[in-house]
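Morning F.,

Quick status update on the modeling queue. The single chain you submitted on Monday has been processed. Sequence for confirmation:
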Amino acid sequence: MAATIRRRLQRGAASTAVAALVLAALTASQAPAATEAAAARKQKPAPPADTPIDGGSAYFTDRPPLHRPAPPREAHGTGQGTALGTGPAEAGLPATVLAAYKKAASAIDASDPGCRLPWQLLAGIGKVESGQARGGAVDAEGTTLQPILGPQLNGHGFARITDTDGGRYDGDLTHDRAVGPMQFIPSTWSNGGLDGTGWGADGNGDGKKDPNNVFDAALAAGRYLCAGDRDLSVQGDLDRAILGYNHSEDYLRTVLSWYTFYRHGTHEVPDGRGVLPVHRGGTGKSGGDSTGRTGSGAYQDHGSGTPGRKPGKGGSGKPGKPGKGQHNHPGKPGGSGTGDTPGGTGTPKPEPTPQTPTGPARLTALERVGDKDLSATAGTEFAASPRVRAKDAAGKAVAGAPVRFALPTTTGARFPGDATAVTVTTDKDGLATAPTLRAGDKAGAFTIRATAVGRTAPAVAFGATVKAKPAPKADKLARTSDKELTATAGQAFAEDAVEVEATYQGKIAAGAAVTATMVTDDPKKPVENDKGPYFKDPEATGGDKDKPVRTLTGLTTDANGLLKLPKIYTDRHAGTFLLRLTTADGAVLTVKLKVAAPAGS
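Structure tokens below.
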């Protein structure tokens, strides 16, 4: 009750008198309210109604050190709880990532002050979701140097979410994957928001909403955490917000442990120098459980709830000692003792990912398969697709490694689903083959790049060329009417007087190029006439718009092989004149135009 009254007051009372009365009531009931709040914190928060932000994907399960860092001396202008000094390595936050968290919290504080979003909460989520963007591997604008992709959400150990974005964000055309520093699934980023337009945000003001940009992702995450009129200073709201990200009790405890750790002091480190987490687990299918699937490990919770709360009794044991059924290995996921698979106990081994020390993590090189560059005609599919083989340091093939094939956005070529990037997993022979690539309408050359997702192996480049589409052929032209074409000098022929049909080897020739020229009647070498019927230039302006034009190029037949010539005008000359129509394939048609002298001339 006290929390509810306090929240309403903080979001704006009707008058100072009302505020005074409410404050008086709070003061009189402070002890019961505190008891009520404490009891509420012990209750299990209700699960979120919608799909979790990260789709129930895997996350890093490392816990903070047992001893909290003493707040280092703060440098001038760095903000509360952050210093440009030294301290425990785990308390170091990459400069750009830290700036993104603070910028997002500041923006939300201005738009929704009642939420009370601490930037350290964003840091806690960023730590378990992506290891602070892989230790701050971002460029100056905050965009990750390489895509950060979660495992495929195919229902095997994780939620099942079939592709919702055509590979636009995650490059996967079959299932969704969590994307970026804050691990948004594409459907949540693009269309999961309260207004139907998605939680995606533009945090750096560049006019784009990119889940791979830490400024955009942090602002989007902050807005999600504050949704539903939450006040994050209230433990119930805080817990529900975090569980909405990934509905797992272990996830909640892990995020809160880092949140509490960061609140007791952090310092800034250069981008790319942040501590990389090691242990990665998952909550299982969306909805999760509390069986310790990610492992509670030997690390203490450090207050898994309100900052400063003491670790609870039971399975976690005393500080520095593993609880019952746990492995005596600090930071390593331990068994829950309840069993996560039928007939088994302990924690199941997560599927290999680029972040684990087995499987794809052994990948050290990508090798191009095939020496020839790729080529296709404009508007058609490439006959061959880019292919690479993943290898380890010993030169052996690596299976199950995600490889990303990316096209430059300036080219018109696209993968299925109009995608410019796709992620393909290597097969048992270590081979990854990109899906069929379709050329754009324009001719030109471009480069396709293949990179190992999550690894530093050198990229492989493929040259690709799009050839111009050959012009349709036409070996015969014929008029569609045998009506005589006549006009009076100084006047024009009837509208659309001349219509012809083009064919090639007896079939309709659509899109065939035709040239129309008014020629002399010299049978040996007809040349352009300087008198008689003429056209007008449709693009001419001013005094040139009525200037006679006796040769037209760039005329093409329609889908039915038909061409209607523009309006034909006449000058003061009378007689029989010739219009000659030609194609590049040798088709020639000569049309007679009769011009009569005006009456009484």
